[in-house]
Amino acid sequence: MVATAAGRLPLARIAVRPELARPSARVAEILAAARDVLEHEGAEALTMRRTGEVLGIRAPSLYKHLAGKDVLTAGLAEAALVEVGDLLHEVVDRADADEVVAALLGAYRGYARAHPNLYRMFTVGRLPRAELSPGLEQWAGEPFYRATGDPYRAQALWAATHGAVLLELDGRYLPGSDLDRTYAALAEAFAAQPAGPPRRG
Questions:
Q1: Which DSSP string do the residues of 28-48 spell out, in sequence order?
Q2: What is the pLDDT of residue 6?
Q3: How far is CA 140 from the centre of its chain?
Q4: Where in the chain is the domain with CATH 1.10.357.10?
Q5: pLDDT-based confidence at residue 201 (cuts at 50, 70, 90)
Q6: What CATH number belongs to 21-66?
């Protein structure tokens, strides 16, 4: 293990997993239908009307259960953050200091590749923070801090990983690029190192 100013890596869990309000059976059904539309047809297809079509009901009936598309997308973002948070915390729980960053990046990349449209929904553009369960965003992102032991390295690691993932999803790397080696290099760049004094100047 590697000692940092915050302790030994990877750090133990700090934040408590937020208690999420359980949606009604009908709202859960609507969210599942909306996610299916998003995952298979893309963000442009995700409308209240299309969600209603999947459920076999008219869109106005959906408004009896959800106030509008903003609430719908917030519900999808919340579900995705829970999934990602659970996945990444479990990965960090099992890893040691030498492998934790690589394992974290592998799990994050795998989730984004499996759910590209959902991934973009909760990571690109404005995040509806006011409509998320309190503490959810911080808890879901905490594995990056647990893997690095420093809040700024954690943010930098997430930013670099997010950028790498988006480039991959958009097919922006040069043909023939060995992306496994690219992610391995990224992990190596952020591999745990003993914390030193802050730089001056």
A1: HHHHHHHHHHHHHH-GGG--H
A2: 63
A3: 7
A4: 74-193
A5: very low
A6: 1.10.10.60
- Three-state SS string across 107-154, please? HHHHHHHHCHHHHHHHHCCCCCHHHCCCCHHHHHHHHHHHHHCCHHHH
- Which DSSP letter does residue 4 get? E
> What is the model's pTM?
0.91
- Cα–Cα distances (Å) from 55 to 4, 33, 42, 61, 70, in that order, read 52, 7, 17, 11, 19
Q: Which residue has the higher pLDDT, 200 or 53?
A: 53
Residue range 74-193 in CATH 3.50.50.60: no
Q: What is the mean pLDDT of residues 181-193?
A: 91
The CATH 1.10.10.60 portion of the chain extends over 21-66
